[in-house]
Amino acid sequence: MTRFWVGGYGADMDGDAEGIGLLSVDDGRGPSTLRYRGVAAGVASASWLAAHPTLDVVYAALEGEGTVQAFARSGEGELRPLGRPLRAGDGVCHLAVSPGGRMLVASCYGDGQVVRFGIADVGALVPAGVDKAAALRAALFGETDAADGADADPQRARDPHPTPAGEEPRQSHAHAAVFLPGGRIATTDLGFDLVRIWRASGQALALDHEVVLPRGTGPRHMVLHPSGHLHVVTEYSCEVFTLASARDGSWGLVSATSASPIAQVGVDFPAELAVSRDGDTLYTALRGSNTLAALRVRGGGEVLEPLALADAGVDWPRHHLVYDGTLLVSGQRSGTVSVVDLDERTGAPRDVRHVTQAPTPTVVIPAR
């Protein structure tokens, strides 16, 4: 039996989920047997989940509470807390774990913070200490750190991107993080239309440089392609931007492609971005039209071409996962997870094979 952890919105965020849930598939009969099996850990609004690369440990972003917490598997389908929840920031909505399993980066939509936590040998979260540089910044610029010792994004307190006169002030909305080759970290800021590149500095994160995207695009989620390119889907402009690293290590924009030929700005809002196992196809979901868009990856990974569009089988497709020749799609508003077939030859999404109930699902990840 193959198992998946499913996160979702609970009562504190107008949802029905009672914690981290468990989905399962009968290996003998395939993805069409996907079903919800109940609550694995009772927590409030675990809207994003991330797995440790080697340990049977799962990290949850408790969005309504603004905290993050680690859980260890206990038995076949249960998770037990591995330490207490730690404060991250308002609206923490995404977690990324380093490939070596020693660091977790939390992105906070509500206040724009990017928060770094350490990970202990057993997988428990460790609050990051405040290094001397952070203390100096606080003294000089009045910056404050997140509770429990986690370091706040140093760009948030003193906005380096002032709003032009006469326009509504923009707000920082950190939305996702990806670990890059060489140890640096990329994060999106949906509010300031930025991809920020960070490097570890002591126990904190130091800003290395920024990639500025066109205003109003709203970069949301990212995926690192096997070619080394970074693909970024935008929530507001319905595009996928491709970034590449130059010889000097700086990242820059190399191409932009519509997420879907029929996407309507202001109606459709792309959410997740995923890559096929062979790297030939990207998948994004458009909330609004409730469709799945596939893009073919060409050239050396820098060129994207629209490939196909299909029904997501759910309402408000918040997240999707490539699994066994299918996409598992979380429908936040329909309270369902769909199984959408992928064409074996082209990778294009096809028919909805199966739909199962799940309370206000927002993310699905494989369990060990």
Describe the overall structure:
It is a single chain. The chain has 368 residues and is mainly beta. The chain contains 2 helices and 29 strands. The protein has helices at residues 132-141, 154-157; strands at 2-8, 20-25, 35-41, 46-51, 57-62, 67-74, 78-81, 86-87, 92-97, 103-108, 114-119, 125-127, 174-179, 185-189, 194-201, 204-212, 219-224, 230-234, 239-245, 251-258, 269-275, 281-287, 291-298, 303-311, 317-323, 326-331, 336-342, 349-357, 361-366. Strands 4, 5, 6, 7 and 8 form a 5-stranded antiparallel beta sheet that branches. It has a 4-stranded antiparallel beta sheet with strand order 3-2-1-29, with no helix packed on it. β22 and β23 (291-298) form a beta hairpin. The longest helix has 10 residues, at 132-141. The protein starts with a strand and ends with a strand. Residues 129-167 have low confidence and may be disordered.
